[in-house]
Specification:
Layout: E1 4-9, E2 30-31, E3 35-36, H1 39-47, E4 52-57, H2 62-71, E5 81-86, H3 100-105, H4 108-111, E6 118-123, E7 126-128, H5 132-141, E8 146-154, E9 162-166, E10 172-177, E11 204-215, H6 216-222, H7 231-242, E12 245-249, E13 254-256, H8 260-268, E14 297-298, E15 302-304, E16 307-308, E17 313-314, E18 318-320, E19 323-324, E20 329-330, E21 335-337, E22 340-341, H9 350-359, E23 365-366, E24 371-373, E25 375-377, E26 382-383, E27 388-389, E28 398-399, E29 403-406, E30 409-412, E31 417-418, E32 423-424
Parallel strand pairs: 1-4, 1-6, 4-5, 8-12, 14-17, 15-18, 16-19, 17-20, 18-21, 19-22, 21-24, 22-25, 23-26, 24-27, 25-30, 26-31, 27-32
Antiparallel strand pairs: 2-3, 6-11, 7-13, 8-11, 9-10, 9-11, 28-29, 29-30
Length: 428
C-alpha cells in the first residue's frame, strides 16, 4: 500500500443539504454526534494502510480545512499526511474546478512528486466501510488501469448512479451516467443469483460507488484537457475504449449523503441494535479530532434506542430514537424523539452565561420543557424554554427564521436562536 495515494474530493456546493451546507462544505457536515463526514473516507484510508491523502476543497472550505489540520497529524517516523489542496490559480489554470475529473487534473502537479503507482479517487460525502487493500490486490492481479467499486441496485435507482456493464471476467464494457430510463441500459441487468439473497426482487444492475483506483500513468493520460471535466460523464466512458477498466462488485453498506432525508436516516440508523454502518467496529476504527471530554452526565433521564456522546449535560429528559452530539446541554423536562442533535463546539463559561441573562439571550443548548421531534439541530443552536419543534405530517418545505423544513424534517440552523415559547414550523 506504500505505492498508493488517495485523493478525496471535497464536493460541490451541496445545495441539496442546505442549510447544513450554508457555512460549510458537505464533507465538513457533522455526523454521528461527534464526527464529520470527511472522517469516514480518511478513516477507511488509514485502516487500509493508505497514509498519503490529499483532500481537494473548493466551496465553504474553512471549517473542513480547520478540522483536517487539527485532527490528522502523523509522527515524524511515518511518511504520511492528510493535506488540503484548495482551489488555486496557477499559470496553467485560472478557473474554479469544473467537475470531479477537472479537480484531479488541476492537482496532478501535486500527485506526480509522490511517485505513487496507483491513485484512489474518493468522494468526501459517502458513508461506508471498505478495506482498500482488497481493491488494490484485485486491481494489480487484473493488471487494470482503472478499477471501479460497484454495488447492485434496483431499476428504481438507476437515475441516481453511474451504471456499468461488466463482462464475465470483470472488465467493464459500457458505462452510462445516471440513465434517465431503463431503456438506455437494456440488457445490462445482472444474471440471477450473482448476489446472494438478492434474487426474486426484479432486475438488478451494477452502479459505480464513486470509488476509483487508477494507475497514476493512466490517470495522466485520461485527464488530458480534451477528455472532459467529470469522471462519470466524460472520463470513464472514454477510458473504457482506451484502457483496461475493471469493476469490483461489493454488497457492503454504502450511502450517498446527498439529501436531508438520507443524512437524517443515516444518522438515526446508528441507533439500531445492529447498524449497517457500525461506529463500534474495532477492526475499522472511525477517527476524528480528540476533544478530551468527560462522560455524559444525566439526571433522571429515560434514554431509549439512542446514541449519547461524550460531554453531554442533561437534566430529567426523555430521549427516544435519537443521536445526542458532543457538548449538548439539555435542561429538564425536555422530550426528544426521532432527532439528530449535532451538539456544540464549546461550553459557555460562567461569565458568558451571566452575560446571556443580562442580554436576555438564550443559552447554547436546549431549554427546559421543550419538545423536539423529527428534527436536525445543527451545532451551537440556542433553543429556549417551552419550544415545540415538530413538522407533523405532510409539512411542506419552507424557510423560517433560523430554521428550514426539508422532506418533512425540521433543520435548526447552526448558531440559530429560537426564542422561548416558539412553535416550529410556524403555522401560516
Amino acid at each position: 500500500m506504500e505505492q498508493t495515494i488517495a485523493v478525496i474530493l471535497g464536493g460541490g456546493r451541496g445545495t441539496r443539504l442546505h442549510p447544513l451546507t450554508k457555512h460549510r462544505s458537505k464533507p465538513a457536515v457533522p455526523f454521528g454526534g461527534m464526527y464529520r463526514i470527511i472522517d469516514i473516507p480518511v478513516s477507511n484510508c488509514l485502516n487500509s494502510g493508505v497514509y498519503r491523502i490529499f483532500v481537494v476543497t473548493q466551496f465553504n472550505s474553512a471549517s473542513l480545512n480547520r478540522h483536517v489540520a487539527l485532527t490528522y497529524a502523523f509522527d515524524t517516523f511515518r511518511e504520511g499526511f492528510v493535506t488540503i489542496l484548495a482551489a488555486e490559480q496557477t499559470p496553467e489554470n485560472a478557473d474554479w474546478y469544473q467537475g470531479t475529473a477537472d479537480a484531479v487534473r488541476k492537482n496532478l502537479r501535486h500527485l506526480r512528486p509522490t511517485f505513487a503507482e496507483d491513485v484512489l479517487v474518493l468522494s468526501g460525502d459517502h458513508i461506508y466501510r471498505m478495506d482498500y487493500r482488497v481493491m488494490v490486490a484485485a486491481h494489480r492481479q487484473q493488471r487494470a488501469d482503472v478499477t471501479i467499486a460497484a454495488l447492485p441496485i434496483r431499476e428504481a435507482d438507476l437515475q441516481r448512479f453511474g451504471v456499468l456493464r461488466m463482462a464475465s471476467d470483470g472488465r467493464v464494457t459500457e458505462f452510462h451516467e445516471k440513465p434517465a430510463s431503463a431503456d438506455l441500459v437494456r440488457g445490462w441487468d445482472l444474471p440471477g443469483g450473482l448476489f446472494a439473497g438478492q434474487t426474486g426482487q426484479g432486475p438488478m444492475y451494477l452502479a459505480s460507488m464513486g470509488i476509483y483506483l487508477i494507475r497514476l500513468s493512466a490517470l495522466e493520460e485520461m485527464l488530458r484537457p480534451e477528455m472532459g471535466t467529470d469522471f462519470g460523464v466524460h472520463v470513464i466512458p472514454e477510458a473504457i475504449r482506451t484502457h483496461r477498466v475493471y469493476a469490483l462488485p461489493s454488497t457492503a453498506y454504502w450511502e450517498d449523503i446527498g439529501t436531508i432525508r438520507t443524512y437524517y436516516e443515516s444518522n438515526l440508523a446508528l441507533t439500531d441494535d445492529h447498524p449497517a454502518f457500525d461506529v463500534f467496529d474495532p477492526q475499522m476504527k472511525l477517527y476524528t479530532r480528540p476533544r478530551f471530554l468527560p462522560g455524559a452526565r444525566l439526571g433522571h433521564a429515560q434514554i431509549r434506542r439512542s446514541l449519547v456522546c461524550a460531554g453531554v449535560r442533561a437534566g430529567d429528559i426523555n430521549v427516544d430514537h435519537s443521536v445526542v452530539g458532543t457538548r449538548t446541554v439539555i435542561k429538564s423536562g425536555v422530550t426528544i424523539e426521532d432527532s439528530y442533535l449535532a451538539g456544540a463546539d464549546y461550553y459557555e463559561s460562567a461569565d458568558a452565561l451571566n452575560e446571556n441573562r443580562e442580554r436576555s439571550l438564550t443559552d447554547v443548548g436546549i431549554g427546559g420543557d421543550t419538545v423536539i421531534r423529527h428534527a436536525i439541530v445543527d451545532k451551537n443552536a440556542r433553543i429556549g424554554y417551552s419550544v415545540r419543534i415538530d413538522p407533523g405530517e405532510r409539512c411542506p418545505n419552507m424557510d423560517g427564521n433560523g430554521y428550514a423544513v426539508r422532506e418533512g424534517i425540521v433543520i435548526v440552523e447552526k448558531d440559530a436562536i429560537i426564542p422561548d415559547g416558539s412553535v416550529i414550523p410556524e403555522r401560516r
